[in-house]
Each structure stands twice: as structure tokens, then as C-alpha cells.
Specification:
This protein is mainly beta. The chain folds into six domains: 25-112, Immunoglobulins (Immunoglobulin-like), CATH 2.60.40.10; 121-235, Nucleic acid-binding proteins (OB fold (Dihydrolipoamide Acetyltransferase, E2P)); 239-319, Immunoglobulins (Immunoglobulin-like); 329-407, Bacterial OB-fold (OB fold (Dihydrolipoamide Acetyltransferase, E2P)); 418-506, OB fold (Dihydrolipoamide Acetyltransferase, E2P), CATH 2.40.50.200; 519-642, OB fold (Dihydrolipoamide Acetyltransferase, E2P), CATH 2.40.50. The protein contains four helices and 45 strands. The strands form ten sheets. Strands 10, 11, 12, 13, 14, 15 and 16 form a seven-stranded mixed beta sheet that branches. Strands 37, 38, 41, 42, 43, 44 and 45 form a seven-stranded mixed beta sheet that branches. A five-stranded mixed beta sheet has the order 2-9-8-4-6, with no helix packed on it. It starts with 30 loop residues before the first strand and ends in a 5-residue tail after the last strand.
């Protein structure tokens, strides 16, 4: 019997060295001392050194430094005593005092220790709170003032680089990699701010305290500042797992052993994935694990947690996917550069330039550069063989060797375009995002550049990448326009924001249908009836605001979220004032707040609620009755706000 979760348990069983002697100090015949090191209290005070000299002696004043005083500074033969004195200090300091006697010099080390204050060490959650406090939520990076110590358990390691001498890893309080509960330690150094040299200095499950500066990276990642953190303390986990004989499990059914050694007991072993199960425990304490066959092309990873009374060890097991005849665009985007790839037949052309085409799998997009791609048509379903590279900071396909058109006129919905005009100065996405940018167009030969109001000096500009004739881009020369399309990287060291345009239009301040100026229900209805034929879908997403007047009814059942719980969506009508008027618009099969499926426990919507929805629009014509202006359904649209709340 296969277990959904693995559960098993078994019993398992300030020094300081100073060696700056020059001439064996206590064995000189000319001057004999009982010790070569004397100390003074950190609060200041005196200490005395007694010695015997065979002739006149004197102290080299320069050897005292500025902080140490000696009395007397000279004397004759016989028994002698020198008193050293110093003021209080906040840092440890030493002096090598030279006592000259005849032709010999006796070296005495005088040291004043300063006790080092123990640093205040934050938990991971306390560090995250400090980072959150400075983040303004606008997608920019923000820094926490000062330097902090943070303690946690390593829950994931991205890299320990011996080439660069740094490491990127994650800390959490319980050793689990849970969203919102980890801190990324980004490219930090090892103990004493030294370089990593072996690549195995620490492992998942170890306890680490880091010291460094904290930041919010573009509002997405709480992390340490690159080059401004290092490991302060490190404690190996009381639990260790032997290395596996594989790097990744094969996609087929696989049984393997996991050998655990622990210095405490009992141990509780759990897995977060049902495809990985515990079959048995051998007599020598090894766990026998089984991985089900992976029937998908994508790799998958399970995390095994080994919990003792005080220690926690996490181990990640990755299983390969089955070989595929093609890869999705999402998979290709994540591949390493120079990978030879083939797109799946379901890949659709969503935009064109005179030099290539944008391909999409409905989730992510990528630009294919080459004459073979430029010859395609929007809506074509294609299988393409090419090489994946990064160009201008974003993934791209090049060196196309084969293109097969499997289908034509495929429908697709572009996501809601993000207007980056106000943050053009720092915009630098790493993928082909769908964006808008407004500026005044200048046409010079094959170059179509946008001068942005905020950068009148031209230090930052937009650039329309090889626009196709259908866009009629030249006709907009000298006019302020808004360009909508796919981000195609930065050019000329970041000066140009390259866009593969799908639409060019006259600039309008806060146009209708956008997030800041949504359509009303009646405006959305009128727009659909005027601009879309039956079955046609808008090329982009729009925002629509209204008040729920009633729910749609199917088979005598109101299509509330509760009644459609198995689908996670709902269908209802909205009007401008909430009355059951003729100027309605249907929110058809929309997802809940946050663009996610409604789940039990979420409040349902009801007539009288004010909503803003976002998604592609379409005109549905039933076999009988009037045409229905609506969203495209099946979760392609979602509720942006409910009675003013977005969460």
C-alpha cells in the first residue's frame, strides 16, 4: 500500500596565541624577566613587570606607542620594576615594548583586551519584518539601514560557488522552504568574510547566523545585499543524510535507499509529495523509498523532512520528466542558453516583426528571430526547432532550423498590458512581458524611437522593434502615441526599451478600460457590440467596473462561487447601478480575488456587491436570443476588487 505521507521514527543513537618572540625573551643573560606578556584591564589601570638587569637599561619610547605609559623609563643594574599604565579602551590593543640592556633587547608584549559585545541576533521573521517596513510596494528595490545579524536554518541552497567564492542560500526558522517565511542570502561569503573554497562547507539543515545588509529586491525577494553579507556562525545539523547514488531520479518507477545518521532521537520523517513514499526500514536503519512514475515532461521535486527533538534536516529529491517531442515556451524560457529546443505544436504566434515572431504557450512568450519566423502569420500553431539564447536580457530563439505550421487562426488572449511609462527609468524585465509605453515617435530610416516625457534629453527611450506594415507606424511620426506589445529587452546599455508592437494608438491620458479608468458595465457592453464580431475575442484584457445585479442561471442553478465550487469560478451580471437594466455586462466564469480559484472558506459574492473584473472580452451569440457581451470564461478573467478590497 502506498502512503500519502512518509512517517517513520527510529532511535539513533577564548584562546589567544601570541608568538612574536625575537630572541627567546626569558633566557637573555643581560636582562631576565619572569614573563614576556603582561596585560592591562579594559577599563584602564596599571600593571607591573619585575626583572633583573646586569647593567644599565632603558625603554625605547617609540615602542610604547601613543596609548601606553611606562615608569621609570630607565635604570641601573640589579632588581628593577617597571609600571605600565593605560586609559580605558573600547578595542583590543597591543604594544611590543623594547627594553635595551647592553647589546641585547628584551621584547615585552603589553596587551589591553576589549571585551567584544555580543551582537543582537534577529530571527528570520524579525528580519523579514524590517525588510517589509521599508518596501513601498511599487516594485522597486529598497534597503534597510544598518547591518544586522540573522539566525536561521538552511532550507535551500542555490549555489556554493568556488569560482566566485560566494554562496546563495535561504534561511527559515523551521528549516522548511515555505513562501513568505524565508530570507535569501544572496552571494554571501563564508566565515570571517572569506571565500568558499570546497563547495561543501554547509548543507541544508545546518544552523547559520549571517551578518550583513538587508533589502527588498524589486518588491519580490527579501534578501541580503550582494557582497554585503557573510556567515558569522555555523553549526552542523545533528542529522545527516548520505549522498545518493544519483543526481536525479529517472522518470520510471524507482526504489532507492536513504541512509540517515543522527545524534538525537527519535526522528520523524515526512514527505511533502504523494508521489514519494516510504516502503520500509532495513535492519541497519536505512529507509527504503519509492518514487512513482512521472508521466509528465516537467521535472518534479519532493522535500523530505527529518525532524528530531531539536534538529531538522531537509532533503530534496528531483525526478526527471519523460522525454518530450517538444517543449512549452515556459520550459524553454527556463532552459540554459545554447539549448537546442523544439516547441510543442500548441505554440501560437501572437505577434510579428519584419524580422521574427513572438511565440506563446498561453503563459509565457518568447521572440523567435529569423526569416522563417517572420514569414508566419498571427494565430499560426507552430513547431519550431531553434537554439535558445539570451539577448538584451531576455530569452530569445535564434538559428531556426525547421518550422512546421500545424494549425492556423488559433485564438489567444494577451494578458493585461502593464503600463511602464512612469517607471521606464528602472524597468528591466527578464522575460517577454506584455507592456505599454507612451512617448513621442521619431522615425529615422528603420528606427522607430519614442521620446519619453520624463527623459526629454533622450537618455531613456522606447524603441519599436521592426514594426510590420499593418501597424502603419510611420504615420504616427511626430505624434505622442501609446505602444502596446511584448518587451524585447534593453538596447545600447539600457538606453532603449525595445517593444514588439501589437498595437499603436494616439496617446490618451488615462484611457478607458485600464486599471486606473475601467469601463463601466454599460461602456464595456457598448465597446464589445461595436468592436467585436460574434465569437471574436479582444486582443488584450480590459478592466470593467459594475454592481452585481444577479447571477447567471444554468439548469435552474444560480452560478455562484459556492454552487460552482468544483470549478472555482462564478458567472453573474453587472450593471452601472446594480439594477436589472438592459445595459448589463456578463462576468462569465470569472475567478476570485487574486486571479485564483474560489475555495471553500472564501466569502461568496452577492447582488449589490461592487466589483472590478479584468480579462479578455468577447461577444457570444447563442442559438436563440440576443448577443451576450461577456468575458471569455474558464477563468480567463478574474475579480480585481470586491467592494474596494483587493484581497
Amino acid at each position: 500500500m502506498k502512503l500519502r505521507y512518509i512517517i517513520g521514527a527510529f532511535l539513533l543513537g577564548l584562546g589567544l596565541t601570541l608568538s612574536c618572540e625575537r630572541e627567546q625573551p626569558m633566557t637573555l643573560s643581560e636582562i631576565q624577566v619572569p614573563q614576556s606578556i603582561v596585560s592591562i584591564d579594559v577599563a584602564g589601570g596599571i600593571t607591573q613587570l619585575q626583572f633583573t638587569a646586569q647593567s644599565d637599561w632603558s625603554i625605547d619610547e617609540a615602542s610604547l606607542g601613543e596609548w601606553l605609559t611606562a615608569t621609570p623609563m630607565s635604570g641601573g643594574a640589579g632588581e628593577a620594576a617597571v609600571t605600565f599604565s593605560a586609559e580605558a579602551t573600547t578595542s583590543t590593543r597591543t604594544a611590543e615594548v623594547h627594553i635595551n640592556c647592553g647589546t641585547k633587547t628584551q621584547y615585552i608584549t603589553v596587551i589591553q583586551f576589549a571585551q567584544k559585545a555580543e551582537p543582537v541576533i534577529l530571527t528570520v521573521s524579525e528580519a523579514l519584518a524590517k525588510i517589509k517596513a521599508v518596501d513601498k510596494g511599487d516594485g522597486n528595490s529598497y534597503y534597510v539601514d544598518g547591518e544586522y545579524y540573522v539566525n536561521g536554518i538552511v532550507c535551500r541552497i542555490d549555489e556554493i560557488s568556488t569560482q566566485y567564492g560566494n554562496a546563495t542560500f535561504y534561511l527559515s526558522e523551521n528549516g522548511k522552504f515555505e513562501e513568505g517565511k524565508w530570507l535569501e542570502v544572496y552571494r554571501a561569503k563564508w566565515l570571517e568574510n572569506k571565500a568558499f573554497s570546497t563547495g561543501n562547507e554547509f548543507s541544508v539543515g545546518d544552523e547559520i547566523t549571517i551578518v550583513g545588509k538587508l533589502m527588498s529586491y524589486k518588491g519580490n525577494t527579501p534578501e541580503t545585499v550582494q557582497g554585503e553579507a557573510h556567515v558569522y556562525k555555523h553549526s552542523k545539523s545533528l542529522i545527516s543524510v548520505n549522498d545518493f547514488s544519483f543526481e536525479k531520479l529517472p522518470a520510471i518507477d524507482t526504489t532507492f535507499h536513504m541512509v540517515v545518521t543522527a545524534s538525537e532521537s527519535p526522528l520523524l520523517v515526512t514527505s511533502d509529495s504523494p508521489w514519494l513514499q516510504l516502503m520500509s526500514v532495513t535492519e541497519d536503519g536505512a529507509y527504503v523509498l519509492h518514487a512513482d512514475e512521472n508521466t509528465k515532461t516537467a521535472e518534479r521535486t519532493a522535500t523530505i523532512s527529518i525532524q528530531g527533538p531539536t534538529a531538522l534536516k531537509s532533503v530534496s529529491i528531483t525526478q526527471m520528466g519523460i522525454p518530450a517531442t517538444g517543449s512549452s515556451v515556459s520550459d524553454i524560457v527556463a532552459m540554459s542558453d545554447d539549448s537546442q529546443v523544439q516547441t510543442l505544436p500548441s505554440t501560437v504566434v501572437v505577434a510579428l516583426t519584419t524580422k521574427g515572431a513572438v511565440l506563446s504557450d498561453g503563459v509565457k512568450a518568447i521572440y523567435a528571430y529569423g526569416e522563417a519566423a517572420a514569414a508566419l502569420s498571427v494565430g499560426d500553431g507552430v513547431s519550431m526547432s531553434a537554439k535558445k539564447i539570451t539577448y538584451g536580457g531576455v530569452p530569445e530563439l535564434t538559428d531556426i532550423t525547421a518550422v512546421d505550421v500545424d494549425s492556423q487562426n488559433n485564438p489567444f488572449q494577451a494578458p493585461a498590458a502593464v503600463d511602464i511609462t512612469d517607471r521606464a527609468g528602472e524597468y528591466a524585465a527578464t522575460e517577454a512581458e506584455y507592456i505599454k509605453l507612451s512617448g513621442t515617435l521619431t522615425v529615422s530610416g528603420n528606427y522607430y524611437n519614442l521620446t519619453l516625457d520624463a527623459f526629454a534629453d533622450g537618455s531613456k527611450q522606447g524603441s519599436i522593434a521592426a514594426p510590420v506594415e499593418a501597424l502603419n507606424a510611420s504615420s504616427y511620426a511626430g505624434r505622442k502615441i501609446t505602444v502596446t506589445g511584448w518587451f524585447n529587452g534593453l538596447g545600447s546599455s539600457g538606453k532603449y526599451i525595445n517593444i514588439i508592437a501589437t498595437k499603436i494608438e494616439e496617446y490618451a491620458d488615462n484611457p478607458k478600460g485600464t486599471e486606473t479608468n475601467p469601463f463601466t458595465a454599460s461602456e464595456a457592453r457598448a465597446w464589445v457590440l461595436e468592436n467585436l464580431a460574434s465569437g471574436e475575442v479582444s486582443s488584450e484584457s480590459y478592466f470593467v467596473k459594475g454592481i452585481i445585479s444577479k447571477f447567471a442561471v444554468s439548469r435552474e442553478v444560480e452560478q455562484t462561487f459556492t454552487n460552482c465550487a468544483s470549478f472555482g469560478n462564478a458567472s453573474f451580471y453587472i450593471t452601472d447601478d446594480g439594477t436589472d437594466s438592459d445595459n448589463w455586462f456578463e462576468a462569465y466564469q470569472v475567478y476570485y480575488l487574486g486571479n485564483r480559484k474560489w475555495v471553500e472558506g472564501d466569502p461568496d459574492v452577492k447582488p449589490g456587491d461592487e466589483v472590478v473584473i479584468c480579462g479578455p472580452l468577447t461577444l457570444y451569440t447563442p442559438s436563440s436570443g440576443e448577443p451576450v457581451p461577456e468575458t471569455t470564461g474558464k477563468g480567463t478573467a478574474y475579480i480585481v476588487s470586491l467592494n474596494g478590497k483587493t484581497e
